[in-house]
## 1
Amino acid sequence: MTTLREVMLVDDEEDIRTIGNLSLGRVGGWQTVLAASGAEALEKA
């Protein structure tokens, strides 16, 4: 059974979120949830 590895990446800069998402997904095998602010992160948590 494969364990789902999930992480939330919160940053107000879209470029940083995009690069982080690609890096975490391709290299680390993580599924990422992206948020642009703390408030958005709390809504998605």
Note: Helices lie at 14-26, 38-44.
## 2
Amino acid sequence: MTAKKPTVPTRSGADNVPALDIAQMLGGHSCPDWLKDEAQSLATAGTPWHRIAAIGLLLRLWIPTDRSEKQTFQQALITGAPIPVKDRARAWLETLSQDAIASFEADAIERANALYSSIDALTQLVAADDPQAANTAQTLFTARDDLSSVQAALQVRNAGERLQNALPALDHHFGTHGDVFDALDIPDTPRLLAAAIADPDVVWAPCFGLFSSADPEADEPWYIDDTEAAMAVGEEEDDDSAEDDDSAYDWRPRTPLPTPIQAAATHATPNPSWRFADDAKKWIAVITARPSRNELHCTLLCQGDSTMPDAHLWLFGQKHPLPKGDKLAEFSMSLLAAHQADPSQPQLAVEWPDGTQALLHPDP
């Protein structure tokens, strides 16, 4: 007994979708090998649906692998400068007719509906100890990821609202079958891992040992605020402290950190980010909270023609040397360390050898 892979015929409105050349989309820019292979496989699968999924996959998960390209890419994310690979993908999508876009959304909803019965069929495979159950589960996860890619493509055309509204119920159905997926040793793939890192809420994150807030019983945003989660990121359990202080492992700051960081305590998105700048707008910092990885990540950009001087960055009580001569620097610390930061130390500032500082403030 095997579960059928969901198949949906392509609608006539999508017949005139042009061919998709992934190499042309990349335009010579570096790309993870797995992403290039996945996108190429989708682009040459022979149906317009798969071409749309390929474009959406690039929009969601492409980042350059070359070091200098990566710095340029990160600067573009901060400053809003053009990103050629993604701009070419968007331009390709703009060539499609409104009828084609509507057809792709209708197809996506049918594919989402078909996944319900496929998930139920997987339960029967697991009950029968079918050796193909794990691979079937992987196929279902990939099919769900295709829907996210198509959704990303539709959003470029200001479409996809019906699909967006349909996906939470599907994810809930995945979640109610969590025990089925937990019973399997599902082989991971670079694509599924990359998608889970980009969005820890994807339904397969728990199967690969990653945290996820996609709990069908959860009503509140997920945070690292219990003993089990803290131990999973390397903390030691302390029964006494856990009883005395329910927030012993809560990453949310006790100290007077900048207001946007405090806002993470109630932020509903998986990886909230905030932008900071000094008064002269010479320094731009983008800080991202990643609760699923117990990480606070900071990207610091030196604006204009200048490069990093002989100076240090204060990041929530920790002092880091800047890479002299570079335009961009990256720093990370644990959310727990940020939570416990010494309020007497600078929270976010560039400091020169003579002790003068440029304080960074929220920059909406």
Note: Residues 12-208 form one domain.
